[in-house]
């Protein structure tokens, strides 16, 4: 076996001087490096698509999805008697190895490719065939004994294998994202509880508004993340609608009429994920709507997470000349010229992940729109865009939680000082002294830096006890339930 970890290494082998074997397809013959599991169709893709320098092996969930589809297909073919049991057993065993993580380095074609994913499907077929030949004690390329197309690809087409495999990969990636997303949501909720009694000034349009607690702010972050968890979870059942059995365009040509149900059942058993055959296989083969749904929902989650990170950067700005309400964990030195400077690097990297997800969604939208007639040829860039977004979002949620949120502290003395001197508290007094009087007092407080509470008492509008009751932290933040105006005796 020769390790080929990506397109560059595979291309070097293809153009090298080492031992080779000859393989032939409908276009002619090529010399293939003797020790690789891939064959001529993969080799042509390496020559044709030197685009991203990122192979499909960068997406392990996709490789596993491909292997699961091939395994389900071979079991269905064995059940239906359209493939010899001995060959089927060999293919089945190789697929099991790939699902377990073996041979992934042999999946070398570029993630973005022409041909609607044909090169990916053929890379998979060739690796399975040659690994099977190796298990049978035969040389690589002895396809008369086990053929990549006639045996491994029996009853299939790229046009039903590839979309099913990328849907499986997306479900696996989405499940992993949801796990991290839930942990991040819980982390924010814990901070909400920790800061429940810490009063602060709320802001609208970056201007002082009315008091709230820091706990309310962090609980709000937690709740908005929970909403996105729910929306992302709702996409999974839609991804589980597959078109296996459609073959080329949805008519099922070359497949036994019983194959679609047999392969669906086996895929469900192997993956542990419910699968449903689309009611209209022609529609399902050409439609990319679910990819837009997933991508759009991912974008929503990324945008909202990015907004939270913007807030964290603002709240921690300073530490002396900014808001400085919270302190983020210091993760690294922030400047090569300014000693002692520490930047909010974790929220910043999450912002950048969000920007990428937003751009990926635009790519998915354009690719989905560009499909023509019975097939969308641009599913490779859709798969690459969404799988990358899932992976990056998962990593972003983890690093935000571990390297930032769990270590946030509140600058309580500063927050208390801000509330005491904030004119925003005058809003709570308007039901008792009227808007005009409150506005006049607010203006005086701003120009003299006097305390609102003192000004109200000095003006004779309310007593000190009445002001204390109305401006209690519980009432200012809304934590103390009230159904209307407190009727106070005349001061």
Automatic annotation (TrEMBL):
What taxonomic ancestry is recorded?
Bacteria, Bacillati, Actinomycetota, Actinomycetes, Micrococcales
User: Which InterPro entries does this chain map to?
Assistant: Aspartate_Ammonia-Lyase (IPR051546), Fumarase/histidase_N (IPR024083), Fumarase_C_C (IPR018951), Fumarate_lyase_CS (IPR020557), Fumarate_lyase_fam (IPR000362), Fumarate_lyase_N (IPR022761), L-Aspartase-like (IPR008948)
Stretches for region Disordered: 1-27
NCBIfam families recorded: PRK12273.1 (NF008909)
Fumarate lyase N-terminal domain residues are 29-359
Query: SUPFAM superfamilies, from UniProt?
Result: L-aspartase-like
* Keyword Ion transport listed: no
Protein name as annotated: Aspartate ammonia-lyase
Fumarase C C-terminal domain: from which residue to which, for each copy? 426-476
The species this protein belongs to is: Pseudolysinimonas kribbensis
- Keyword set, alphabetical order: Lyase
